[in-house]
Structure formats: structure tokens, C-alpha cells
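User: Sequence in, structure out. Go.
Assistant: Echoing your sequence, followed by the C-alpha cells.
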Amino acid sequence: MDPRLFGVWNSDEKDDDTRNSIGSVTMTFTHDGTLIYDIHENNKIQRINLVYKIDGDMIVSDQPSHPKEQVTIYRLENDNTLILEFENMKTKFIKEKK
């Protein structure tokens, strides 16, 4: 695990590419390998419960209810900005302050 990931991350809605590709998303990475992916749309939240592991610079996630591993390259900037690259698309997340 990469302890820098632990916590709550919100999609950077100031970043045009992120806003246009995924909209408003919150990801919560926990110490036990749980990843909660919340999509905020029309005053509703769609929650996807995932598990994850780290392999080098990749987050390998899986949805137990519909098993299929997804691999996303990640990079951290300044410990509060997370850049994800999935299928040649980059998105940016900002870590919530505690």
C-alpha cells in the first residue's frame, strides 16, 4: 500500500479534462484495501465499492460484485494532488484536508 493515498480525494473540477471526462467524483482509499468511488450527479450519489492494491505506480482495482481488474497509473504531486491515467485519459484529484 501507499500510505499517501489513504483518505478522501475529490475530482478537481477546476481541471477541464477532469470535469469533462468524469465530472464530480469522490474516492476514499482506506488502509484495509477498500476503495469507495462516489459519483455525484443530479443531487444523487452513485456508490461503487471496490478493493484495490498497489503494484509499482499502478492502482489495481476490482469490483467484487462484478469482478474485473482495472489498472490505473497514478502519480502524486505535493502529497495533495493525485493524477490518474486510465485508458490514455488523465484526471486530477485533490485530497481533502482532515
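User: And one key feature?
Assistant: Strands lie at 7-11, 24-29, 34-41, 44-55, 58-62, 70-77, 81-86, 89-95.
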